[in-house]
Design brief:
With about 500 residues, the protein is α/β, with parallel strands linked by helices. The chain has eleven helices and 24 strands.
Length: about 500
């Protein structure tokens, strides 16, 4: 009797599954229209374009040709440019060289020069990319290897300075359209050719005695900024003023203010060093001293200033400084691995570096002007019209950036048809699995079937990429939401619902 009942239940389940499979799927366009008809969507400017990459059919469009702020969707452009121009196997090289003679006593009479080659991952970052294990605990790891190379050469003392040479790119640390408030934050770092630890200083703030200042720990502790601690520890769980960091009145001073609850587990403020090359030189100097090498001089930077150049649009290329001897070279991971960090983690600084490197290769100068010219040429080749985009940076931080949904999809189509397709696809976050989409789309049709780049800033959300649709087809899509007044979480839910409507049970 029990066996009959089990067989009957199995048959009913099979019939139910068949009926569900044969039931007509709702029209994708109608689903999206219904989502945008909700009151929560009404005061938002929407730009959406979806195209079938196999047939060229337009699946959905709304304001496809209007211009929108793309936020970090701009990284889809900068990583595509770098892959296409530099190649998936391109590597960056950092050089450590002497600037003088070494005597029999092991004294280097001159400077030590760390020459930046544009490596965005001169850090203890664990690669291949792993979000949960991003950095190894010893942040000075790459510098310790260089310090060991110095010691192995028999150098026990440096009479001169440790120079961080960032002259590979023109010193134009920030881009038009960036907020001044961004530039002290880790996400708004100054751009340079020599960058250590993402140019990031982590300030860990922990509660102290109630009524007294908070405890502060800095990682790595290099003394780049002088920290003035004006925080307060407040009893309980809640505070009246959030923790803040701002530039002080004196050069090199950063003031920590606000309050932290006595029951808090602590907060980390991520600051950006204002001179990346000097920051890298400080890290190398500390590693050298830890290895027993005495440094008589100081850590300083050498930069290529724009007012010393005839043109910022073209140049004669770049060569490492002549003279001295090379002690060691550090080679980066291939570009196809480096762009995984850019797109999966939405790493602003790295995206800007890629733009400068392409400019140097194409125009002989690593400047903002040459970088935007390289982008214009590349997008013209991809079939984008000159009025469909205005891109002033590679990261998306600039509020001068504008892109149409149609232009974004055209870029995605272009990359789909290039030999670099797999490297580009592999760099994108996978819905519900990794990167900036690791917590989104879980338990939805989009989980594992969407590869897309996120984008967000005040009153701006964006999501563009590829979706695996019904019948094994692949869709390229762009979804922009601008000028919304709701909580960003409400608009993000709508964006994700629209993207999930494109996905169907067919694996990538």
């Amino acid at each position: 009797m029990q066996a009959r009942r089990s067989l009957l239940l199995l048959c009913l389940a099979a019939l139910g599954a068949t009926a569900q499979e044969t039931q007509p799927q709702p029209d994708t366009a109608q689903v999206i229209d219904d989502l945008l008809a909700r009151p929560a969507a009404g005061r938002t400017l929407w730009g959406i374009f979806v195209r079938d990459l196999g047939t060229g059919e337009t699946v959905y469009e709304r304001n496809r040709d209007k211009l929108f702020l793309p936020a970090s969707n701009a990284k889809l452009f900068s990583t595509a440019l770098a892959l296409s121009r530099l190649g998936a196997d391109h590597r960056f090289t950092t050089i450590l060289a002497t600037g003088g003679k070494v005597d029999e006593a092991g004294v280097l009479h001159g400077d030590l020069r760390l020459v930046g080659g544009g490596d965005p991952n001169l850090s203890s970052r664990a690669l291949p990319f792993r979000k949960r294990d991003e950095f190894r605990p010893d942040r000075l790891q790459p510098m310790r290897g260089l310090a060991d190379a110095v010691r192995d050469r028999g150098i026990g003392r440096v009479s001169g300075d440790v120079i961080g040479d960032g002259s590979r790119y023109v010193w134009q640390p920030y881009t038009r359209g960036w907020s001044h408030a961004d530039t002290l934050q880790g996400y708004g770092s100054a751009v340079g050719a020599l960058v250590f630890n993402d140019n990031r200083i982590d300030v860990r703030v922990l509660p102290g005695a109630t009524g007294g200042p908070a405890r502060v720990r800095v990682l790595p502790l290099l003394g780049f900024y002088e920290l003035a601690n004006r925080t307060l520890t407040m009893a309980g769980r809640h505070v009246g003023r959030s923790l803040t960091a701002r530039r002080g009145d004196r050069p090199g001073e950063v003031v920590l203010g606000g309050q932290i609850a006595s029951r808090s587990r602590g907060r980390t403020l991520r600051l950006a060093a204002s001179d990346p090359a000097r920051y890298a030189a400080l890290a190398l100097k500390k590693a050298l001293e830890a290895a027993g090498v005495v440094i008589d001089g100081r850590a300083r930077s050498q930069l290529l200033l724009p007012d010393r150049l005839r043109s910022l649009r073209s140049g004669s290329g770049w060569r490492p400084p002549a003279g001295g001897a090379t002690i060691a070279e550090l080679q980066s991971v291939p570009l196809q691995e480096a762009i995984r960090v850019v797109n999966k983690e939405s790493q602003n600084l790295h995206a800007e570096i890629l733009m400068r490197e392409v400019a140097l290769h194409e125009s002989g100068i690593g400047s903002r002007e040459a970088a935007t010219a390289s982008m214009r040429r590349f997008l013209a080749e991809a079939g984008l019209g000159s009025t469909e985009f205005f891109l002033r940076d590679g990261s998306g931080l600039s509020r001068h950036n504008l892109v149409s949904p149609a232009a974004m999809v055209r870029l995605l189509e272009h990359m789909w048809n290039l030999p670099e397709r797999e490297a580009y696809l592999d760099s994108l976050p996978v819905a519900g699995r990794d990167g900036t989409l690791d917590w989104r789309f879980r338990r939805t049709a989009g989980e594992g079937r969407i590869r897309a780049k996120t984008g967000s800033m005040s009153h701006v959300l964006a999501l563009s990429g590829y979706a695996s649709g019904s019948g094994g087809r692949t869709l390229a899509f762009a979804i922009f939401a601008n000028h919304f007044g709701l909580a960003s979480s409400s608009t993000r839910h709508l964006v994700d619902s629209i993207a999930a409507a494109l996905a169907r049970p067919a694996p990538f």
